[in-house]
Design a protein that fits this description.
Helices cover 94% and strands 0% of the residues. The chain is an all-alpha fold.
């Protein structure tokens, strides 16, 4: 149970990092186009 909880939190943190990375990329693309 505890192991699954830690794994779940790690996955959530990874998803968040991916989302932030994607957002930063989108912003960079917008600036590059303007």
């Amino acid at each position: 149970m505890t192991e699954w909880h830690v794994d779940s939190e790690r996955r959530a943190a990874t998803d968040l990092a991916v989302d932030l990375n994607f957002s930063a990329h989108q912003i960079a693309v917008l600036f590059a186009q303007s």
